[in-house]
């Protein structure tokens, strides 16, 4: 009997793997990279470039988001300048690689991506959430290569450098859920659940999430809500990316490196001998606590030309909730940067 059951399990696993691999093959045929792929440090990384003009605007995504997160905004900005959105390792169309990266390592990798793709510096960096860690370190490590910053509801180092018990629990839980998600994706379970969800049957997906507890259900439900705000043409690719293990593994690596990344941002700010002089706009969500708002206001004060604004009606994904406000802030910084470059004031 035991041998019979083992044979059934083996056949089921094999069928699941074959289902997953067939799905991956179909995804590759239907959804090729919309941009171009550059090789950096042995990794093939994806970059999508639109428009023309200088300085280029470089979009840096949040912790587990790809270039697709910027689709609507990048199209609008492309009428004003060159706009580049890239996928960090494991996200979107980029390879995962064998190791994780801290924010400083992501900043160094981004610099190499810009070189490989022929994106001329200096640039304006627009970063969301965790991307603000990468952007701030980039601005400190390569000061001549940045002429403006727009940070959208940035994660602040104060929250993660020595996370309190509740935040440590969130991090550990996020890592576990992501790693289990990678296994389920490899077996085709995530692919089947997401496909059924999009066809209107939510039961399988909710049952799967429910096994991880209420927090996981709430977190994924929030993300699904944000994805719904993105252009419908992006949904198939997002589904394909999150039906593969590497997106989950990339997310787990981001979570695991978050405290180290926070320490890097704190150290970079402490080593700075004077405030930045570039234009800087920090846009915060309307849902922040007073302590979170104060931390973001401190980020804005890193530049003598910095300003902070709370965006009414916006949650954490400010650029999806209030795209016009974000577009105007980027154009404000872009024009200020152009004036500074033209006048030699930078």
Q: What features would you describe in this structure?
A:
- The chain is α/β, with parallel strands linked by helices and 346 residues long.
- The chain has 2 domains: 36-163 and 256-343, Rossmann fold, CATH 3.40.50; 166-251, no CATH class.
- It is 55% helix and 15% strand.
- It has helices at 2-30, 71-77, 103-117, 131-141, 157-160, 165-186, 189-198, 203-210, 214-227, 235-241, 245-271, 290-300, 318-321, 323-343, and strands at 36-40, 43-50, 57-60, 83-86, 123-128, 146-152, 276-285, 303-311.
- An 8-stranded mixed β-sheet has the order 1-2-4-3-5-6-7-8, with helices on both faces.
- A hairpin with a 2-residue loop joins strand 1 (36-40) and strand 2 (43-50).
- Helix 2 crosses helix 14 (323-343), helix 3 (103-117) packs across helix 4 (131-141) and helix 4 (131-141) crosses helix 11.
- The longest helix is centred in the N-terminal third of the chain and has 29 residues, at 2-30.
- The chain is globular, with a radius of gyration of 21 Å.
- The mean pLDDT is 88.
List the helices and strands and how they pair.
Blueprint lengths: L1 H29 L5 E5 L2 E8 L6 E4 L10 H7 L5 E4 L16 H15 L5 E6 L2 H11 L4 E7 L4 H4 L4 H22 L2 H10 L4 H8 L3 H14 L7 H7 L3 H27 L4 E10 L4 H11 L2 E9 L6 H4 L1 H21 L3
Parallel strand pairs: 3-4, 3-5, 5-6, 6-7, 7-8
Antiparallel strand pairs: 1-2, 2-4
